[in-house]
Design a protein that fits this description.
The protein has about 220 residues and is α/β, with parallel strands linked by helices. The chain has one domain: 3-Layer(aba) Sandwich (Rossmann fold). The protein contains eight helices and five strands; from the N terminus they run βαβαβαβααβααα. It has helices at about 10-25, 40-55, 100-115, 135-150, 150-155, 170-180, 205-215, 220-225, and strands at about 5, 25-35, 55-60, 115-120, 160. The protein has a five-stranded parallel β-sheet with strand order 3-2-1-4-5, sandwiched between helices. Strand 1, helix 1 and strand 2 (about 25-35) form a beta-alpha-beta unit.
Length: about 220
C-alpha cells in the first residue's frame, strides 16, 4: 500500500482530504504543525481525527510563526468578523508563507518515510482569499519538490494532492458524510471563546455554516453546544 503524508489541521477540510486519499488506497502519515496559532485548540482535534483515520503515525512539529507575526492568527491583530468573504481582498488571517512552510515540512518527512505523495486540504472555491490555496501555487510547489529532493532527482518526484481544490464547502461536507466522517471531531473557528466554543462570525465559521446549510446537513458542533 503506498504511503502519503497528509497535513492535518483538525479542520473539516483536511479531515475530508485525508479520508478521500485513504479511500483511494493510501496509508496515512499525519502531520500537524504548531505554528503559534491563536486557535491552538485545533491540534487537539487533529489528534482525534488522526485516531479516527487510523493514521500510521501522527507527527506534531513546532515552528513558531508568531515570532514573525503579520497575521491575525499569530499576533494581536483582531480576527475579522462578519466580513464579506466573496471579495478579492486578502484578509488579515492570511499567515505569510504558512502553506510553504507546511508543505516543506511534509516534503522532508515524506522523503524520510518513503512516501511519494503529500495531501493538503486546500480549496480554491470556498476559501478566504489566501494566495497559497490557488492551483497555480500548488503546481509550482510540486515543480519545486521535483528539483529540491533526492526522490525527485532520482526520478521519483513527489506529488501534491489537493482533492478538495475545486469543490464547494457543501460538496466537501457531502463527500465526507458519504464516507461516514464524524465532523464533530473537527474544529474550524479562528477565534474560539475561553470555553472553546466557535465564535460563529469569523471567515472559517461563516464558511462552515454556509457549507452545512447548503449540504442540507446539521453541524454536529452546533447541535452539541
Amino acid at each position: 500500500m503506498p504511503s502519503a503524508v497528509v497535513l492535518l489541521s483538525g479542520g473539516l477540510d483536511s479531515y475530508t482530504a485525508a479520508a478521500l486519499v485513504q479511500r483511494d488506497g493510501f496509508d496515512l502519515h499525519a502531520l500537524s504543525v504548531l505554528y503559534g496559532q491563536r486557535h491552538l485548540r485545533e491540534i487537539e482535534f487533529a489528534r482525534r481525527v488522526a485516531r479516527a483515520l487510523g493514521a500510521r503515525q501522527h507527527l506534531e512539529v513546532s515552528v513558531d510563526l508568531a515570532r514573525i507575526g503579520g497575521s491575525a492568527l499569530t499576533s494581536d491583530i483582531p480576527v475579522p468578523k462578519e466580513r464579506a468573504i466573496d471579495t478579492a481582498e486578502i484578509p488579515t488571517t492570511y499567515v505569510p508563507a504558512r502553506n510553504t512552510v507546511f508543505l516543506s515540512l511534509a516534503l522532508a518527512w515524506a522523503e524520510v518515510v518513503g512516501a511519494h505523495d503529500i495531501v493538503i486540504g486546500a480549496n480554491a472555491l470556498d476559501y478566504s482569499g489566501y494566495p497559497d490555496c490557488r492551483p497555480e501555487y500548488l503546481e509550482a510547489f510540486e515543480r519545486l519538490a521535483a528539483l529540491a529532493t533526492r526522490a525527485g532527482v532520482e526520478g521519483a518526484p513527489l506529488r501534491i494532492h489537493a482533492p478538495l481544490l475545486h469543490m464547494s464547502k457543501a460538496d466537501i461536507i457531502r463527500a465526507g458524510l458519504s464516507l461516514g466522517l464524524d465532523y464533530g471531531l473537527t474544529h474550524s473557528c479562528y477565534d474560539p471563546g475561553p470555553d472553546g466554543r466557535p465564535c460563529g462570525a469569523c471567515d472559517s465559521c461563516v464558511l462552515r455554516a454556509k457549507g452545512f446549510a447548503e449540504a442540507g446537513a446539521e453541524d454536529p458542533l452546533i447541535s452539541a453546544s
